[in-house]
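User: tokens in, sequence out, please.
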């Protein structure tokens, strides 16, 4: 029954587009429709990823989910750059890194229960996040006592972005080779073929990008009526919305007992945001709008770095525990309250 409801709810995606462009609905209505439409899309991405993982293994499956899940976020961020909203872009990057490490991983552990995780892969990717945060300090520290959007910091961000992209390329190639060479079970009976899985992933990603754009378009009006700061909207609301695919997909997969893949999705997505999405946005911003500097606020640097470091200790034993999941979700809630209290610059 639930599956039929989710399949039927996919019709909300074209409805959202019509409401925005044909009927010019209010921001409140657009926000509600778009948020509802992301739920079945997240389920569909999780479904397709799990079928793809039957052929590729958990590591590559996590990479596929993170890649397809982060594509809409990249598009949304570039649209925000074009609109001249650098603080919103940086806030959404911060929120994506933190929410995937704490919120998505936490829910994956809660719904997956006790089980094994790929300790080596998770710690490697958390280390990558920590390395990225350390590099972010190069353009960030000068911005703490001046204008974070000055041209010089955008120029300084270019070599930082290039180094991060190089790290992403090297680690991705190496990680995929290791997972490809590792032994794995035969695909389960009834699993979709790999081309079908990838086709569904691509279609769901495009639909997610369109729906997410509509939702972000309505966020400003929603934020004004709710009295929320731009930073909180970006770091919490936009980040959660932009990562709806990973959030929903990881929970669905964990609930089905595949905790190993679910945790891989959460941490792989966070690493991709830090070493691929963030530097890609910084470089592409020179083309689509005003150049973006990777100059993050102290609260952003602190929460990203401490989240990555803390979760290393959680996964160090190679086990997923439900109580640890509740702890991670609780920590995320505390971070969100801190974002709310910090306000704008």
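Assistant: Sequence out:
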């Amino acid at each position: 029954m639930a599956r039929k409801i989710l399949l039927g709810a996919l019709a909300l995606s074209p409805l959202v587009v019509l409401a925005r462009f044909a009927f010019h609905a209010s921001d409140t209505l657009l926000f509600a429709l778009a948020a509802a439409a992301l739920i079945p899309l997240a389920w569909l991405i999780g479904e397709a990823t799990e079928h793809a993982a039957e052929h590729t293994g958990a590591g590559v499956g996590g990479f596929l989910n993170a890649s397809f899940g982060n594509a809409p976020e990249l598009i949304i961020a570039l649209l925000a750059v074009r609109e001249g909203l650098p603080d919103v872009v940086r806030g959404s990057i911060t929120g994506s890194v933190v929410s995937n490490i704490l919120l998505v991983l936490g829910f994956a552990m809660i719904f997956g229960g006790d089980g094994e995780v790929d300790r080596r892969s998770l710690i490697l990717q958390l280390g990558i996040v920590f390395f990225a945060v350390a590099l972010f300090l190069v353009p960030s520290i000068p911005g703490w006592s001046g204008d974070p959007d000055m041209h010089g910091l955008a120029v300084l961000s270019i070599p930082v972005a290039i180094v991060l992209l190089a790290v992403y390329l090297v680690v991705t190639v190496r990680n995929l080779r290791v997972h490809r060479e590792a032994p794995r079970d035969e695909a389960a009976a009834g699993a979709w073929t790999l081309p079908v899985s990838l086709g569904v992933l691509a279609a769901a990603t495009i639909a997610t990008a369109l729906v997410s754009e509509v939702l972000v378009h309505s966020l400003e009006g929603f934020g004004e009526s709710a009295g929320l700061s731009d930073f909180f909207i970006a770091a919490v609301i936009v980040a959660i919305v932009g990562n709806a695919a990973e959030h929903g997909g990881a929970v669905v997969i964990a609930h089905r007992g595949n905790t190993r893949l679910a945790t891989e999705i959460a941490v792989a997505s966070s690493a991709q945001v830090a070493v691929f999405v963030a530097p890609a946005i910084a470089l592409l911003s020179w083309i689509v709008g005003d150049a973006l500097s990777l100059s993050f606020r102290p609260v952003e640097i602190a929460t990203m770095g401490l989240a990555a470091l803390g979760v290393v200790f959680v996964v160090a034993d190679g086990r997923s525990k439900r109580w640890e999941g509740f702890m991670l979700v609780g920590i995320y809630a505390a971070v969100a309250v801190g974002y709310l209290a910090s306000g704008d610059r």
